[in-house]
Amino acid sequence: MNIRHAAIPDIPTIARIINHAADYGQMLHRSPAYLYEHIRDYQVAVEDGPEMRTMGVCGLQIIWGNLAEICSLAVDPDFRRRGVGAALVRACLDEAHRLGIRKVMSLTYEQRFFEKLGFHVVDRHELPLKVWSQCIYCAKNRACDEIAMIFEHADVPDLTPASSAPADERYVMPVTLKVRGQRTPGRMSDPQPGGNPADAWEHD
Ligand SMILES: CC(C)(COP(=O)(O)OP(=O)(O)OC[C@H]1O[C@@H](n2cnc3c(N)ncnc32)[C@H](O)[C@@H]1OP(=O)(O)O)[C@@H](O)C(=O)NCCC(=O)NCCS
């Protein structure tokens, strides 16, 4: 198997693999437009041999100076349980290490899989609010049951703790929310203790 950065010709296959998993509620659907914009975040696992079929895909999205997120990790059902998912996550962890990012997080239902790769469960409220910016696209945004997990590169210094970010950058992010048939800007505030961070979205 060869793990490499994704390129434009990979997009139809990446979309098929991700959206198949999304049909089962395991992740968010991704449109071609989204994939064109974010293609540099993705790596693919390609089969050795003449057909060179794409076996799986995984994204690494940078959240902040000390945090990145594993996203859209999906292995084609024909290739599961052969080490493809683990190889993709390790490639993304290597990428985070190369970039100098200490922590890599995942929001997942696959706790055992990520534990085997050195991730541990954390309280989701420890994660910065920016992580929840995609929740408006999720049908479960008010009833999120994903498990928050983190991997830490012990040898990478934590140079940019979340608390060093200016308040307006940490908590106020322009997004577009659909409100009463109109698209209006929204912002995030602190979540209620014990509540779903996605509930922190405010709009006029
Ligand atoms: C989760 C997923 C990416 C795993 O990929 P995979 O290629 O099948 O996993 P691997 O073969 O690399 O497994 C690595 C290890 O995790 C274990 N593992 C994999 N899936 C597991 C599961 N669902 N439960 C428990 N252990 C699991 C494997 O047995 C293996 O253990 P080993 O190292 O002791 O042999 C894949 O099942 C998938 O695409 N699922 C649908 C999408 C999804 O849920 N993605 C996760 C979103 S965060």
Main attributes?
alpha+beta; Aminopeptidase; 7-stranded mixed beta sheet; 3-stranded antiparallel beta sheet; 5 helices; 23% helix; globular; binds coenzyme A
What does this structure look like?
There is one protein chain. The protein is α+β, with helices and mostly antiparallel strands. It has 5 helices and 10 strands; from the N terminus they run βααβββαβαββαβββ. It has one domain: 3-Layer(aba) Sandwich (Aminopeptidase). The strands form 2 sheets. Strands 1-2-3-4-5-7-6 form a 7-stranded mixed beta sheet. The protein has a 3-stranded antiparallel beta sheet with strand order 8-9-10, with no helix packed on it. 26% of the residues are buried.
CATH 2nd-level architecture: 3-Layer(aba) Sandwich
Percentage of residues in strands: 25-35%
Bound molecules: coenzyme A
Main β sheet profile: 7 strands, mixed
DSSP summary: helix tally = 5
Portion in helices: 10-25%
Oligomer: single chain
Shape, per Cα inertia axes: globular
Structural class: alpha+beta
Q: Compute the CA-based radius of gyration.
A: 17 Å
At a glance:
The protein is of the alpha+beta class and 204 residues long. The chain has helices spanning 11-23, 32-38, 84-99, 111-116, 167-171; strands spanning 2-5, 42-46, 54-64, 67-75, 103-108, 120-121, 147-152, 175-179, 182-188, 201-203. It has one domain (2-154): 3-Layer(aba) Sandwich (Aminopeptidase).
Q: Which helices and strands occur, and which strands form pairs?
A:
Elements: E1 2-5, H1 11-23, H2 32-38, E2 42-46, E3 54-64, E4 67-75, H3 84-99, E5 103-108, H4 111-116, E6 120-121, E7 147-152, H5 167-171, E8 175-179, E9 182-188, E10 201-203
Parallel strand pairs: 4-5
Antiparallel strand pairs: 1-2, 2-3, 3-4, 5-7, 6-7, 8-9, 9-10
